[in-house]
Design brief:
Layout: H1 2-10, E1 22-24, H2 40-49, E2 56-61, H3 67-78, H4 95-98, H5 101-104, H6 108-113, H7 117-122, E3 128-131, H8 140-143, E4 148-154, H9 157-168, E5 172-173, E6 182-185, H10 190-198, H11 207-220, E7 225-229, H12 230-235, H13 237-247, H14 254-259, H15 261-268, H16 271-276, H17 278-281, E8 284-287, E9 290-293, H18 312-326
Parallel strand pairs: 2-3, 2-4, 4-7
Antiparallel strand pairs: 1-6, 5-6, 5-9, 8-9
The structure holds adenosine-3'-5'-diphosphate.
Length: 333
């Protein structure tokens, strides 16, 4: 416990035992020299300086719960007037065919940490943005202001943890102890990721508080927070895309539905299509002193992959632990 807490205090991503491999030279084009590790200054700057705009939509999640997919779906639907998908006359040059979804929807903590607020100022209205911050950590300018709506996506924690484990072992981190052109690969043991949930250290905090913060607000203020589940979006994408469009005040017209625009968006954002796209099979995202290969955001995209990695006893024990945390809240996975 102490070991995990110490390692997550400065970086929730790394186990102390990890990050042993080094690669050097030309792995990144990011501005050198930062070596920053924690998201806290980004969240503090966000709390102090975020200026809401009418129509703002914030996509919130814990890492590895379908953020990338939600970004693609929300971007494709909200921007369908400017960038029509194929069924609405799109000509094959949709931004999602050229860019990784994270390049279409800015990540707020990263924007503030990397001092790139000008990107937010320049973004056209209505803005789509994302965060991994918990609801109580959001600025009052978001939670107390009617101009900003929030769409939250959660996922079965067992699959979330397996996804994070794979993801972190694909990433590279820059540390201040290395010279400017050197990168250190991140390694993280499965047991550290798994135990970080119980320890309340996944993303530096308890996941049940993260989920319940948004869940409770979605129940109290359904116009403020739309609460989605990865598994439900996978089982019924049409219903969930329609929920998104209605929530952000851009419902599909009958003509759009007849033209097959919903199916077109589902296809554009499908796991297979996105994974195969050149924009996602090459290149990397450089953010907050880390490098994340685009392809690492598209691994399997299925429900229940945890069975291939942990024992039924480990799964059962985590399920029981979390059921107790959610008891009485009305929330179930
Ligand atoms: P797996 O590692 O289980 O495959 P995030 O975007 O929050 O980082 O979450 C990543 C997870 O979402 C990964 O899960 C990834 O494969 C899955 N994912 C990414 N794009 C998807 C899509 N278009 N449809 C379904 N799942 C997707």
């Amino acid at each position: 416990g102490d070991r995990l807490r110490r390692s997550t205090a400065t970086s929730w991503r790394r186990s102390r035992a990890g990050c042993t491999r080094r690669s050097s030279g030309g792995a990144s084009t990011r501005a050198p020299g930062s070596g920053r590790r924690t998201w806290v200054p980004g969240i503090v700057a966000l709390q102090r300086r975020f200026e809401p705009r009418a129509g703002d939509v914030l996509l919130a999640s814990l890492p590895k719960c379908g953020t990338t997919w939600l970004k693609a779906l929300a971007f494709a639907t909200a921007a369908r007037g400017v960038y029509p998908p194929a069924a609405a006359g799109g000509d094959g040059r949709h931004p999602l065919l050229r860019l990784n979804p994270h390049e279409c929807v800015p990540f707020l903590e990263g924007i503030y940490l990397d001092e790139e607020e000008a990107k937010l100022d320049a973004a056209p209205t209505p803005r789509l943005m994302s965060t991994h911050a918990s609801y109580p950590n959001l600025p009052a300018s978001i939670t107390e202001d009617d101009r900003c709506k929030i769409i939250y996506i959660c996922r079965q924690p067992k699959d979330m943890a397996i996804s994070l484990w794979h993801f972190m072992n694909c990433s590279k981190a820059k540390t201040s102890s290395l010279s400017d052109d050197q990168w250190e690969s991140i390694t993280m043991s499965l047991s550290d990721v798994w135990e970080s949930i119980r320890e309340g250290a996944y993303l530096g905090g308890p996941i049940w508080e993260h989920i319940l913060g948004y869940w409770n607000t979605s129940k109290a203020k359904p116009d403020k927070v739309l609460f989605l589940k990865y598994e439900e979006v996978l089982r019924d994408p049409t219903k969930n895309i329609e929920k998104i469009t209605e929530f952000i005040g851009q419902p599909f017209s009958d003509a759009e539905k007849e033209a097959g625009i919903v199916e077109s968006i589902i296809e554009l954002c499908s796991f297979e299509k996105m994974k195969a796209s050149g924009a996602n099979s090459t290149g990397s995202l450089h953010m907050m002193a880390n490098e994340y290969p685009h392809e690492s955001f598209f691994r399997k995209g299925v429900i229940g992959d945890w069975v291939n990695h942990v024992t039924p006893e480990m799964a059962d024990s985590l399920d029981k632990f979390l059921s107790a945390k959610f008891y009485g809240s009305g929330f179930t996975f």
